[in-house]
Amino acid sequence: MTGQAKAKPNEWPNYLGKGFNLHMLRESTPALVMAAGTFNTGTPDPSGKPMTVPVMLRIEYDASRGAVRLTVRTSNGEATAAISKIVETHLLANK
Q1: Which of 29, 30, 73, 79 could join 56 via S-S bond, C-beta 3.0 to 4.6 A?
Q2: Would you kindly state where each structural domain of the chain is located, as residue ranges?
Q3: Alpha carbon distance 56, 71 (integer Å)
Q4: CATH 3.10.20.30 correct for 2-41+51-91
Q5: Can you give the pTM of this predicted structure?
Q6: pLDDT tens column, 8-35
Q7: Are 89 and 72 in contact (CB under 8 A)?
C-alpha cells in the first residue's frame, strides 16, 4: 500500500514501538523502517485459544515526494489486511 506520509518519519518508532508494541529492527534507517512482533487476536485457533499472529512490517519513505510504501506480512491474510488498515490510518494521509 502506498500513500503520502501523515505522521513524520521521526515519529514512526514511537507509533510502532509504543502504539503497536512492535520491535524496531536495528537495521532500520529514516528511509526504511522495519519492525516485528506478534498480534494477539480475539479469534480462536483450532484448539480454542486466542490466535497469536507473527507480524513483520516495513515502511519505505521517499523524502523527495513525501511518499510512503507500507508492507505488512503475517501468517494470516485477514490479520494482514486488518493490521495494514490500522497502520495506514495512523501513518498515511487519506487518499
Answers
A1: 73
A2: 2-41+51-91
A3: 8
A4: no
A5: 0.84
A6: 888 888 889 998 999 999 999 989 999 9
A7: no
